[in-house]
Design brief:
Blueprint (H helix, E strand, L loop, with lengths): L1 H18 L2 H24 L3 H20 L8 H23 L2 H19 L14
Helix pairs in contact: 2-3, 2-5, 3-4, 4-5
């Protein structure tokens, strides 16, 4: 049964991505990173080392994806500032992994939520302008 649910979720996610705008894909990445951070925190609290590693690695992958989506060709300082924040978050997640530090996970979660709130606040009519920046 669990395998069937996971298969359904994957097909559902793949379907949503296929029709999603670049703006929506970034929103989904933020949601995924926040979910993986919450799961990492839970695993740390429950001393589930194996799950902690899986979820932290997934969060790192998503944050690397967000960082890679930045348009660094622009002279825009926003992209540069976001790149620095993503680098900081990756360092804190690594510290959380090494030290089983839920405070480090909380730091990253807080920063990511703030960035996501800004991204979510972009008006619909400007979503086409966000296809190469996050």
């Amino acid at each position: 049964m669990r395998g069937s649910i996971q298969s359904y979720r994957k097909v559902s996610l793949d379907s949503e991505i296929a029709v999603a705008s670049p703006h929506r894909i970034i929103q989904m990445m933020f949601d995924g990173a926040l979910l993986r951070l919450a799961q990492s925190r839970y695993a740390i609290e429950n001393n589930d080392i194996a799950s902690k590693g899986v979820f932290i690695n997934k969060a790192i992958g998503i944050i690397n994806g967000l960082n890679g989506s930045l348009n660094m060709d622009d002279t825009d300082s926003v992209a540069s500032n976001l790149a620095e924040l993503y680098d900081f978050m990756l360092r804190r997640i690594t510290e959380a992994n090494l030290n089983n530090d839920v405070a480090a996970i909380d730091d990253v979660t807080s920063i990511l939520k703030t960035i996501k709130e800004g991204w979510d606040a972009i008006p619909q009519d400007m979503h086409h302008m966000t296809s190469e920046a996050s």
